[in-house]
Write a structure and sequence with these properties.
six-stranded mixed sheet; signal; alpha+beta; Tail-specific_protease
Length: 509
Amino acid sequence: MFHALRKRFSLQFGAAALAALACGLSAAAPAALPATPAAWRDAAHADIEAAVRITRENHPGVLDARNPGFAANLEAARRHGLALAGQVTDARSYTAAVEGFNVRIKDGHAGMFARLGDAKAAQLRWPGFVTVWRGDGLYVHSAQPGQPAVGSRLRSCDGKAAGQLIRDNVFSFQGRVDEAGQWWSRARRVFLDDGNPFIALPRRCRFESKGRVQEHVLAWRAIDAEGERWLDDSNGGDAGPVGVSEPRKNLFWVSMPTFHPNEAERAAYRAMTAELEAQRARWLSLDAVVVDLRKNQGGSSSWSQGFAEALWGKERVRKESAAYDAGVEVWWRASPDNTSYVASLAERLAREGSTEVAARIAVYAQGMRDALAAGKPFYVEPEDPAPDAAATPDGPAFTRPVYVIVPGNCASACLDALDVFTRFPNTVLVGAPSSADSTYMDVRVAELESGRAAVIVPNKVYVNRKRANGEIYKPQIEVRDVAWTGATLLKAVEADLARRAAGGRTAGR
């Protein structure tokens, strides 16, 4: 069953999914937080050093000869984090120092996050408007009366160009500045104040609208319900729940907002796939299928794999995946803590009734034990046996256009979905550039002894993966409309379908 899926057999998480997972597994906040600025400085220093030690002992990147920059980046992050730690005075500056440390590692599957509970929380503030990045600049998405006009473009603040302001105030503490998708998902936070004491909030900003530039004095205040709603809209528009809708006859819209589904969402995925398999003849006659990944930041790659197999055919998907993954190796970092975790994961899945998956993970755990006993840093998965020649052939090929809406924060298992979908020439990517992915996967959360923070520790590394560390997907049809509503995205899809009907080519191809 797992031939051609071996390299995709993962539980992979993007930043938000990691945070959700961490909350679900988290220990309670420490009973006693530091009481003085000096104690907070000592705490930040000690916890960053502890995170570096845990990373060096367990993270596959430290011993990855194909990525010598990882260890150098970790040391650079350590030095920068400790410099920030020397300026820490309270919970919020502690959190900012941790964030500054993470950024310098330059890997979404490494670093640490604070575990301070309510102590680190700061009342989110805004200036009365919400912005979005749309490829060539930052634009006003929504605004209260008296604020910059919706659709106007930020030019500068306090004499600093818009791009530099975003680099200084956003990417110095979160995200990965070199990835185009991170600008689409992160740059908008330049006009959100979460209490970071290491940045200077903009006060006077210049916006351009219809050729006219106007200066606005910003009045920062606690964000209200309207602002919260606009903030959510700017991040995913009206993305729907898991399921299929038909916005117009013969066009199916498939919503996949998460690959880290709860119980109800898992049931919805299963029902959707079963319905597709049962009514595949109807799908084969559609004008197009739209797969909406807005708000999706990763999870388990099995959900997109199952959908792809139902749409294109199980054996076709497995054949394409096997070809794409040819030569890829999976190396498990056989540290004592990683080995213990993988063994415990196999036991937990067995108790929960996932016997087939548990059995496979138990094989990995035993291989890690053997590598550990032999003094080897990695257990390398053996190649799977050849597929069963008697596999049931697929039905008619699915050749209708498949438009995949890609958000800027698409990462990890969301990128795995794109790896599979783009094996087929009828797939068209629509929306934004994606974020990039680390080759380090199957993340666990390692708690610090202090209880103040936890460390992100992947257990394995993909070697010779076709999609390189840091490589993104670019859309064939980039959508720069300020509002990313379903109607706006459908309009882009319909325009491409009209071009096809007129004998034209898909935009960007």
